[in-house]
């Protein structure tokens, strides 16, 4: 399963959900001078990396020209699976953010953080020179940033501080307590540790027709046992 739009995303706090919706609807300016990042934190499988991908597309869509909004099938790539956020346009050409960089900090661990930070700086400087072609922002996902040492994170914090307004940083982590406090302060913090069971249930029913044979009460037990882990939920739904 993958979310097709922001209504399919389940956050832990409804206030944070309202905040994120206001950002993607353009009711609040983002990034702004105070915050240029989003820190998505919570347990395994709760949808942090997926949400980072989805938000990049929704923020591009928000700032696109009216003609581009209607001429393309806006979608995001998640591990080679394309998910459309405007299903009614699926016959049109796909468009994804022109500048989207996913950095797996567990793989590019602290030893290579200097070159990763340099790479981000290069992309940022190039877009300064030429402007962002076919996109409004450079999107940088720092996935599982807790894998980086304090020194590597401090380096990244410096980069975020100097970053132009068209760079957006998405930081994901299972261990918020291992994230540099300066990075936490520069980001809008969003907790993903599961949410209202009925929200998970609605998404599950959308994806699996056979769940129509089960009552909400029966499925709520499955959702609660998963603790908000979509991997667990998908597995449990397939077993029913
Ligand atoms: N909102 C959602 N609705 C339905 N399925 C989802 C949703 N978000 C994520 N998923 C599913 O759950 C899987 C795990 O999501 P994801 O990798 O984003 O979680 P994560 O929080 O980044 O996990 P980890 O902490 O292990 O990195 C995805 O492959 C996807 O199939
Ligand atoms: Mg992840």
UniProtKB/TrEMBL annotation:
UniProt protein name: AAA ATPase
Stored SUPFAM superfamilies: P-loop containing nucleoside triphosphate hydrolases
Native source organism of the sequence: Aequoribacter fuscus
InterPro entries assigned: P-loop_NTPase (IPR027417)
